[in-house]
Amino acid sequence: MTLSLATQIRGDVVVLVCHGRIVFGDEGAVFRERVRNALTGTPKIVVDLSSVDYVDSGGLGILVGLHISAKKRGGDIKLLSPNQRVQNVLGHTKLNTVFSTYRTLEEALSAFSGRVA
After folding, report:
1. What Å distances lie between residue 117 and 4, 25, 111, 113, CA to CA?
2. For residues 62 and 82, what is the distance between their CA atoms, to the nearest angstrom?
3. Domains in the chain: how many in total?
């Protein structure tokens, strides 16, 4: 399944809703470019992974690179609702210690402002 992306704006946070796979290649390149473009407007990004069924090493590399870019701008990339398979990959690679994950969009948005959802 190819990757499709939809963008939502919630205050000063960009929410990128992903459907499909985040993998090395064209899908990953489109994903990277979309997040980079969003980072020019705000360093606060939520990546909704609830409909992502697979992330390969290339996709993880893209996420890490974008995370570093967001941090350099004073922001962050927060992951929303990764499925069990994606959570396992994050755990095996220890990236679960790098990325904050949230069950609901409200929790992720609140984390940017420091409020408790």
Report:
1. 29, 37, 8, 10
2. 16
3. 1
